[in-house]
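Dig into these lines:

——
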Amino acid sequence: MNHDAPICTQEAAHAAGLDVAPSPSELAAMAEAIVRTWGDRSAEPEDEVGSTADAGAQLARALPLVLAELERIRAERDAFADRVDTLTAIAKGNKRHVQDMYDQVQKVNRERDELKTWHDNYVKGTKFAGREMRRRLITAEADRDASGHYPGDL
């Protein structure tokens, strides 16, 4: 917090009966003056009353401004907390979404591996079946040539 910056606008200070908009450090100085005056037993009674009344009046006029600034800061804090809550919820949702996507990728990879295995086995089987069919065809042709009987002969 900037202790030299006023806690309100100059217009708000004038509306509250103050000549200038006080800063937090000026408000602290006013409060310290009251405490010093109350604690100073050697002061003359009229000096004590006058200075305490003047400082008290200044603080009394500044109090609504301090409360307004406090309320503004509370509202800002609440808005910030709401944003943090929203972003936290979004982050948790994103984390769940990423986990779901990861699980889906793992499932697709497993299915791909299963299909690749099936494909490789199918190709091997087809090659084996093709070789087996060629072998049978060659054997059948050799048997036909050896026997002299051809399909379609009666």
